[in-house]
Amino acid sequence: MALLSILTYPDPRLHTVAKPVQAVDARVRSLVTDMLETMYEANGIGLAATQVDVHERLIVIDTSEERNQPLVLINPEITWASEDKQVGDEGCLSVPGIYDGVERSSAIKVRALDGDGKSREISAEGILAVCIQHEMDHLMGKVFVEYLSPLKRNRIKTKMLKARRDTERV
Ligand code: NI
Question: Residues with Cβ < 8 Å from 25, sequence gap 6 or more?
């Protein structure tokens, strides 16, 4: 197991479109283990492979209070999304310290392979639905701040670049 480093906005690699996972083999299972460890260590509720600079369609999620219900979605596809939408505050491990409202479908159905390569369809609502949509955006090269106004996005970009310079100076 290993902790992976997480790309931070506005790293251009976050805008890479991920390719489908070809086979759920030992390499992919090991990546899943590392991504889960990285997500738990960072106190996140979701992590997309894009964020650890692996451009394959794979996400890990755990929205449980106890942090013991990992969900692995490989090659996820949304098969249904409710017309009903909700705005909720989102954050992202790639945009630390920033939280803002994003409008998402309140309920979705997703088909994906699990960590054993078995196909399954899950229904999600509430925080899980939000999290899946947020992580699937990462696989398309989209970071949640891109839903915000250009003014807000530029402020966030400036703040992130400054934080990175400050870190590099230490
Ligand atoms: Ni994110």
Answer: none
DSSP 68: -
C-alpha 170 to ligand 1 mean position (Å) = 26
- Supply the pTM of this predicted model: 0.96
Which candidate, 89, 21, 8, places its Cα nearest to that of 51? 8
5-57 residue pLDDT tens: 999 999 999 999 999 999 999 999 999 999 999 999 999 999 999 999 999 99
146 is catalytic: no
Which whole-number Å values give the CA distances from 26 to 20, 52, 62, 136, 146, in the listed order? 16, 18, 22, 23, 34
CA 86/CA 155 separation, integer angstroms: 25
Burial (CB < 10 A; 0-12, 13-18, 19+), residue 45, is buried
Catalytic annotation, pick one of 56, 83, 121, 135:
135
Ligand 1 centroid, distance to 26 Cα (angstroms): 25
